[in-house]
């Protein structure tokens, strides 16, 4: 991940008080980006602004797209599924934290959901494999 990319994202989001934290994930976080790769950014929003999440996501996409001159893909992590959250937390890079206590609470609750989901995912996969073997 280039420092310019990280710094631009960090500078933009540090002034967005409705944003709890921002993660860079995907090909740029793992240094596997190519010329046409988009920039995957996960944003954790304050609960009080979730009704405006679509408009905020669109605004972030437009403004950062202009600043970075690249295709931006913003994901609101508050509404993301467990598999994506697991990938973001394991392989992504946190580039901005505006509210550390709220981030700790968010991660604590989501890790519990990820762990519980893992159990049910394994049960489903095992059942699917048994059905295929019949």
TrEMBL record:
InterPro entries given in the database record: NT_sf, Polbeta, TA_antitoxin_MntA
The protein's matches in CDD domains, at most eight in alphabetical order, are given as: NT_KNTase_like (cd05403)
> Matching Pfam families, A to Z?
Polbeta
Q: Where is the Polymerase beta nucleotidyltransferase domain?
A: 7-97
What is the recorded name of this protein? Answer: Polymerase beta nucleotidyltransferase domain-containing protein
Q: Which organism is it from?
A: Desulfosarcina ovata subsp. sediminis
């Amino acid at each position: 991940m280039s420092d310019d990319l990280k710094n631009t994202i960090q500078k933009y989001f540090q002034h967005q008080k409705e944003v709890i934290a921002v993660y860079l994930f995907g090909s740029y976080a793992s240094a596997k980006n190519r010329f046409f790769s988009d920039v995957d950014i996960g944003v954790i929003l304050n609960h009080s602004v979730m009704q405006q999440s679509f408009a905020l996501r669109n605004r972030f996409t437009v403004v950062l797209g202009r600043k970075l001159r690249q295709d931006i893909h913003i994901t609101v992590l508050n509404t993301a599924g467990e598999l994506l959250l697991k990938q973001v937390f394991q392989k992504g890079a946190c580039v901005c934290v505006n509210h550390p206590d709220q981030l700790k609470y968010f991660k604590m609750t989501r890790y519990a959901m990820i762990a519980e989901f893992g159990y049910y995912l394994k049960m489903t996969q095992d059942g699917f494999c048994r059905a295929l073997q019949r």
